[in-house]
Amino acid sequence: MFRNPIGISILAFFSAFYTLTGYTAESENIEQKTITWVKNDAPPFYIAKGNCQNGFGDQIQTIIERNLPEYHHRTFLVPLSRLEHTWAEYSPLCFATMIYETPINDQYILSSPNAMYMPHGIITTNKFAESLPINADGTVSLEDLISEHKVSLGHIAGRTYSTKIDKLLTKYNDNVVLNTRSGSTETEGVLTMLSEGRFDILIEYEFVLNHYVDEGDYPNQLRFIPIKETRGDYILGAIGCTNSAEGKMAIKSINTILDHVLHSRGYRRAVADWLVPVGDEVHYWTAFDKVLEESLGKEYQPKSK
Q: In which band, very low, low, confident or very high, does the pLDDT at 282 lie, cut at 50, 70 and 90?
């Protein structure tokens, strides 16, 4: 049979072209999956303005996105107080810096643990700190403080802490006067209110205060004091996504790549940038390696409230 070599070459060319570019009838009908991410203006987790540096949550989300090329990724800025009402608006909606604990409602599900934070402490003014019974190890008992005195607490709407702290705040809620901040610039807002003496204490991570001090804010005004009840503990973080079929699929994809992410240089660099206490680097990395082996990237039931 006679074959036209020119015709064959042309057919081969266009076949290769469509294969390489993805222009096939089948692929035109395939819609790329989308993950909608949310961030809140809460340095140093997310740095939304005025600084070219990316926060810890910014960096973690970017690494996750880079390792999920099968998804289209987009991001919205949403105050933490609105997150509870936003899960169902997009499917899936994901947030990269949740606490790994039993979800407070059925609107979202969690990935395997993806971060290790040192425990919260009390941030207060130097003046109020002078009235606190500081223990020999530099800690203060949160239970003693709020069980014996009326204490005003600055709080970001929608925020939880850890199982131990949340239980203490619930147990002694009659003695805890909440001053809740919502809307944009939540973290900066509560720190400013604290420095102005509008409430007594804030429960927060030390690296959050360190960020603002490094930026030149609140110099020598505020002080971090470790909480006795959580001294030596650590807090696991996770990614939260909408509790839907699409959200479960996104979480499954995230869990699949987490082990690779957690061992990557980019992830360790993000941790080193933000989470490692200055002067206590050996202790942090020793604990991190143990937690990485036992918990991070592993599937198991989070602690109940």
A: very high
Distance from C-alpha of 68 to C-alpha of 259, rounded to nearest angstrom:
13
Which residues make Cβ contacts (< 8 Å) with residue 282, sequence separation at least 6?
none
d(CA 267, CA 262): 6
For 198, phi and psi rounded to 5 degrees? -80, -15
State how far the Cα of 118 lies from the Cα of 121, in Å rounded to an integer: 9
What does the alpha-carbon distance between residue 89 and residue 295 come to, in Å, rounded to a whole number? 31
Please list, residue by residue across 77-95, b when 16 or more beta carbons sit within 10 angstroms of its beta carbon and e when fewer do: ebbbbebeebbeebbbbbb
Please report which helix (H) or strand (E) contains residue 225, including its range.
Answer: strand 222-226
pLDDT grade for 182, boundaries at 50, 70 and 90: confident
Phi then psi for residue 179, to 5 deg, are -115, 95
Q: CA quadruple 237, 124, 277, 120: dihedral positive or negative?
A: negative
Its pTM stands at 0.83
Complete domains list, the chain, with CATH = 34-118+234-294 (3.40.190.10), 121-230 (3.40.190.10)
Which segment of 95-104, 141-150, 216-225 scores lowest on mean pLDDT?
A: 216-225
Region label for 303, one of left (φ > 0), alpha (ψ between -120 and 50) or beta (otherwise): beta
Phi, psi of 125 (to 5 degrees): -75, 155
Look at the alpha carbons of 172, 178, 183, 188 in this order and tell me if their dihedral is positive or negative: negative
Locate 105 and state its tokens.
Answer: 């409602």
Cis peptide bond upstream of 219, omega within 30: no
**What is each CA distance from 16 to 7, 10, 29, 270, in whole angstroms?**
14, 10, 20, 41
H helices of 133-231, where?
142-148, 163-171, 186-195, 206-214
